[in-house]
Structures are given as structure tokens and as C-alpha cells.
């Protein structure tokens, strides 16, 4: 198995852009960069790469200071190079920092896409390649068939989905986990979350981001609100006590092995 270390460090919090459109997307990206975000995450399926690129340009920052992530729609299998060229053109950049398969197909289908990803990385069109929404078994199938491990797997990894197996599984294979949808995939009104937020004098969103940091998992968090964008970056306050991390771990629908569901 070939392990390819990321040529950059994933920041603790990046900007997600799902459902952002047009001028809102451009403004949101620009404001996020101005506030200090350095990872911008989009996807061909979001239909907003042009607006995201405009936001990057209007921020005035050198794109080389950013990590730009986009995703290939698995239903476009066979058109990998065309889709990549379109993403590059729409974003207005010369190289994608991290290119992900948006979701798995069957093992053979994912492998065919992955082989084109490997070629794109070897040709320098992308700096790093990975996957999104792959289960551990699907990651292993891809590695076994191709001999090349993804650099990243971007998944829903919050208290709602927590298990004690996924992170060690990926770490053993040299794969970085990145969590998407830290807010929409969790119950923000859960009393345990609210109690912990009151304890630390922070927002529920900040509790969730601190929980991810306690597990060493960087996140991609979406917001068009300048207040929330600022709060998300300011989630580095007092670390959660181990007991509070454990309480949030216990909310998961995926039980730790040996425990009852």
C-alpha cells in the first residue's frame, strides 16, 4: 500500500459551501477568508464553484495561501478529466489542492474513478486525492484493489455518528479524517449539548467543534452568518473536560464495540 502524506495540514475548521449560491456564496467565501479561514470546501454537485472562485478572487488573497477542496460527482464516472478541467476553470485556479470522490459506487466503480484520480495527481493537476462518505470497509476495498490509500476521507463524524473504531482504522492506514456537517448532522437542541455549552459559556456549535478537536478531527463547517463564522473559528477556547467528551461520545447511534446500542 502506498501512503501519500498530505502536502499541507488540514486546519481545525474550514468553510463548507453546500447550498450556497451566487452572490451569497461569493460574499460568504470572501468574508470567511477575511476572518481567517484558509480551507474552502466545495463540490461540482453544489453548482457553486464559479461563485466560490469569485469569492476567493475578491478576497484579494493569494490562492496559494488557501487549501481549495472540491469533489467529483460519482455519477459522472468516465468523465473524470472533463469534470476536473471544468472545476479548475470555474474556480479560476491552476491546481486543486484536494480532490475527493463525493460518494462511493460499488467496489469496481469506485476503483475506476480512483485510477483516474491517481493519474491526475501524478500529472500535477491536483495536489492530493481522497474520498468522501466512504465506510471503512469501502476504504479497505479501494486500497486493496489499487494499492494507493486516500489521503483524506471526509465523512459525517459528530457525536450523533460517533464510534471508537473509525478514527483508529483510518489512522492505521495513514488516512486523515475530516468531518463535514458538524451542525446539520447533530441535534443542536439536545439537552446534553446545551448543558455543556452553559458550563463553558459558549454556543452549542462551539461545543461540537471542541468535541471534534478533542478527537483530533478537523471540520468543514458551513455558515453565511458573520457571527457564526467568527464563533466557529473561536472554538479553540477551554478544551472540553474528558467527562464531557465521554458524555457526547455516548450520544452516538454507532455503539462502541462491547456496548449495547
CATH homologous superfamily descriptor: NADP-dependent oxidoreductase domain
Molecular shape: globular
Kindly state the number of beta strands.
8
Q: What share of the residues lie within helices? A: 40-55%
Main beta sheet, described?
A: 8 strands, parallel, barrel
Can you tell me the CATH class?
Alpha Beta
Distance between the termini: 34 Å
Strands ordered across the widest β-sheet: 1-2-3-4-5-6-7-8
The CATH architecture: Alpha-Beta Barrel
- What is the CA-based Rg, rounded? 18 Å
Compute the average pLDDT. 93
Number of helices: 10
How would you characterize this protein structure?
This protein is an alpha/beta fold. The protein has one domain: NADP-dependent oxidoreductase domain (TIM Barrel), CATH 3.20.20. 41% of the residues lie in helices and 15% in strands. It has ten helices and eight strands. The protein has helices spanning 22-35, 49-59, 80-91, 107-122, 136-146, 166-172, 191-200, 204-214, 226-233, 242-249, and strands at 13-16, 39-41, 67-72, 96-101, 126-132, 152-156, 176-180, 219-222. Strands 1-2-3-4-5-6-7-8 form an eight-stranded parallel barrel, surrounded by four helices. Helix 1 (22-35) crosses helix 2, helix 1 runs parallel beside helix 9 and helix 4 (107-122) packs across helix 5. The radius of gyration is 18 Å and the shape is globular. The two termini are 34 Å apart.
Amino acid at each position: 500500500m502506498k501512503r501519500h502524506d498530505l502536502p499541507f495540514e488540514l486546519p481545525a475548521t474550514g468553510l463548507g459551501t453546500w447550498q450556497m449560491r451566487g452572490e451569497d456564496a461569493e460574499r460568504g467565501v470572501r468574508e470567511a477568508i477575511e476572518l481567517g479561514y484558509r480551507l474552502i470546501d466545495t463540490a461540482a454537485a453544489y453548482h457553486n464553484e464559479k461563485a466560490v472562485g469569485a469569492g476567493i478572487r475578491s478576497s484579494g488573497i493569494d490562492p496559494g495561501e488557501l487549501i481549495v477542496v472540491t469533489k467529483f460527482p460519482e455519477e459522472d464516472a468516465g468523465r473524470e478529466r472533463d469534470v476536473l478541467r471544468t472545476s479548475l476553470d470555474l474556480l479560476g485556479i491552476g491546481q486543486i489542492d484536494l480532490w475527493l470522490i463525493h460518494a462511493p459506487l460499488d467496489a469496481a466503480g469506485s476503483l475506476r474513478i480512483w485510477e483516474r484520480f491517481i493519474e491526475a495527481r501524478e500529472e500535477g493537476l491536483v495536489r492530493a486525492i481522497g474520498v468522501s462518505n466512504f465506510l471503512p470497509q469501502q476504504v479497505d476495498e479501494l486500497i486493496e484493489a489499487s494499492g494507493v490509500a486516500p489521503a483524506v476521507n471526509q465523512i459525517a463524524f459528530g457525536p450523533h455518528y460517533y464510534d471508537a473504531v473509525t478514527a483508529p482504522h483510518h489512522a492505521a492506514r495513514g488516512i486523515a479524517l475530516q468531518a463535514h456537517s458538524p451542525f446539520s448532522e447533530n441535534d443542536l437542541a439536545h439537552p446534553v449539548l446545551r448543558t455543556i455549552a452553559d458550563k463553558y459559556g459558549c454556543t452549542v456549535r462551539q461545543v461540537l467543534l471542541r468535541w471534534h478537536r478533542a478527537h483530533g478531527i478537523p471540520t468543514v463547517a458551513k455558515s453565511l452568518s458573520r457571527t457564526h463564522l467568527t464563533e466557529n473559528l473561536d472554538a479553540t477556547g477551554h478544551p472540553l473536560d474528558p467527562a464531557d467528551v465521554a458524555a457526547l461520545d455516548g450520544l452516538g447511534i454507532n455503539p462502541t464495540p462491547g456496548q449495547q446500542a
